[in-house]
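R.M. (postdoc): so does anyone remember the format we settled on? I'll just put the structure tokens first.
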């Protein structure tokens, strides 16, 4: 979820920025009412672009500005946003072809929606979004769902009929949920270079006021926003949200304590206890649809294509020690389908912590310890670069545990941590030997993006025909029984092939001022900012 360099600012300019943001925060807090005020949020990652279809990161900022036809709620159930209802077979919004191989979805759109420039939102925007994303000239991070559509018709300004080439059970989590493009502003433009990437035009509660790369984004109230509260008051309540870019976890925590920021979704587990003691700070624990994983680069060192080596990694990693080092918040995991889903398979091949078995596997495969204890075979040492996102305290701590575990069986891991654009490029292009990080999914996960041949998040270059077939089966049916069986079988085969090691489930810890009302966390990849219109700062 493309990239531009971040230019450094002078020290004096940074100081001025901090003073400005502190002033905004104090002013917002002092005059906080149900309508008004500024919320300052700390983001733990740099922002590459504000185009929600081009970014390589979670779209926290984008979610305040851009809306889709549907969105997942706090329970990971899809609800209507720019559409008036969630299409289903039962309500007639979804219809299957006579042979059951294709489907048509009809979206009825809200009539009272305007873009933040005052122009009306119509079905033409929905059709344009599809046409723009599938355009081969547009370099998007993900075009999921665009190739599944055969055509879109717009019988009137408030009806979009989407004709699919296949049965697509993941329709709600792909193309039209992440956001709609404004046809009147983007038609004929180059989406790779247009100013939209810096200042997207949306229908959401806020619009972009200022974006300073590597520093902050300020969004302000959209005067044309369509939602109102139960008393007829136009939303949003907040005047502004300031998103400060703070990739270093320690700095993030320091600014929470000082009051320079009032919220972050990325509290390091080791800092939870001390933040919980900060007056006026609430700690919210959010069970997200996410898991931590260690991936192998199949385009990298030849030894990583040896199943014995990958299995040795799996037996050598002490998942319980990682969980303990992280305060017990993440829970050891044996499969990539997290337990909240009915299709999570408990009967996959397992690799319990067993360093003796790891050593035996390597011995049998001919990898012998050298004078320094690191194993080698045919001149190739089992020494690899391990990538995590620099500054993410949780991941860097887990990385150290993994390095120690692997050294005990004769495998050397050397940290090669990156941040910003460098991290993003390494992740997507396979610029690593092994990679430790986390994935977060939608409410109806599409695992082909991670593990199918050519998947958009398959930077490791893994390819397996049986896994491809099982994912095709799971992702081309509306029959829940067929889908579940295919996903159960997929997990078994994935753990046999072991291109990835599921390490732990994830718990997101959010620190937020107790002055923020109506905040409800969201467990999906649509982020906690998917509906900020009702947030308000208490007096």
């Amino acid at each position: 979820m493309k990239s531009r360099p971040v230019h450094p600012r002078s020290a004096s300019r940074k100081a001025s920025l901090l003073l400005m943001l502190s002033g905004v925060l104090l002013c917002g807090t002092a005059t906080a009412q149900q309508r008004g005020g500024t919320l300052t949020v700390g983001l733990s990652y740099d922002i590459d672009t504000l185009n929600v279809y081009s970014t390589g990161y979670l779209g926290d900022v984008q979610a305040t500005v851009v809306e889709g036809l549907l969105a997942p709620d706090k329970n990971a159930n899809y609800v209507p946003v720019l559409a008036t209802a969630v299409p289903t077979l039962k309500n007639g919004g979804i219809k299957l072809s006579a042979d059951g191989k294709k489907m048509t979805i009809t979206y009825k759109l809200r009539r009272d929606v305007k873009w933040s420039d005052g122009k009306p939102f119509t079905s033409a925007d929905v059709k344009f979004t599809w046409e723009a994303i599938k355009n081969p000239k547009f370099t998007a991070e993900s075009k999921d769902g665009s190739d599944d559509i055969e055509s879109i018709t717009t019988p009137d300004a408030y009806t979009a009929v989407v004709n699919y080439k296949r049965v697509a059970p993941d329709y709600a989590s792909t193309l039209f949920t992440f956001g709609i493009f404004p046809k009147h502003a983007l038609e004929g433009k180059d989406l790779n270079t247009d100013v939209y990437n810096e200042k997207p035009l949306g229908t959401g509660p806020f619009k972009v006021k200022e974006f300073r790369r590597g520093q902050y984004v300020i969004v302000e109230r959209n005067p044309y926003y369509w939602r109102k509260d139960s008393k007829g008051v136009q939303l949003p309540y907040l005047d502004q949200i300031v998103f400060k870019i703070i990739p270093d976890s320690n700095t993030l925590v320091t600014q929470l304590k000082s009051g320079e920021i009032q919220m972050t979704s990325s509290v390091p587990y080791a800092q939870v206890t001390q933040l919980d003691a900060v007056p006026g700070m609430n700690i919210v624990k959010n069970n997200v649809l996410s898991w931590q994983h260690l991936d192998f680069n199949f385009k990298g060192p030849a030894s990583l294509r040896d199943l014995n080596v990958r299995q040795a990694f799996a037996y050598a990693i002490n998942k319980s020690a990682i969980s303990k080092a992280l305060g017990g918040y993440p829970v050891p995991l044996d499969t990539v389908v997290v337990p909240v889903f009915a299709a999570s398979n408990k009967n996959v091949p397992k690799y319990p912590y067993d360093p003796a078995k790891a050593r035996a596997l390597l011995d049998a495969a001919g990898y012998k310890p050298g004078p320094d204890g690191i194993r080698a075979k045919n001149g190739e040492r089992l020494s690899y670069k391990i990538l995590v996102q620099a500054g993410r305290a949780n991941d860097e701590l887990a990385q150290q545990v993994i390095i120690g575990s692997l050294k005990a069986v004769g495998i050397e891991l050397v940290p090669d941590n990156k941040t910003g654009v460098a991290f993003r490029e390494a992740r997507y292009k396979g610029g690593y030997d092994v990679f430790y990080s986390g994935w977060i999914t939608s409410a109806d996960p599409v695992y082909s993006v991670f593990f199918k041949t050519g998947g958009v998040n398959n930077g490791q270059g893994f390819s397996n025909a049986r896994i491809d077939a099982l994912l095709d089966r799971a992702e081309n049916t509306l029959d829940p029984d067929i889908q579940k069986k295919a996903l159960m079988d997929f997990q078994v085969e994935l753990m046999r092939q072991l291109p990835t090691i599921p390490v732990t489930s994830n718990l997101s810890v959010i620190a937020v001022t107790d002055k923020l009302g109506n905040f409800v966390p969201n467990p999906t990849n649509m982020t906690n900012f998917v509906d900020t219109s009702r947030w308000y700062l208490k007096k």
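R.M.: ...and that's the designed sequence above, right after the tokens. Also worth knowing: The first helix runs from residue 11 to 30. The mean pLDDT is 91.
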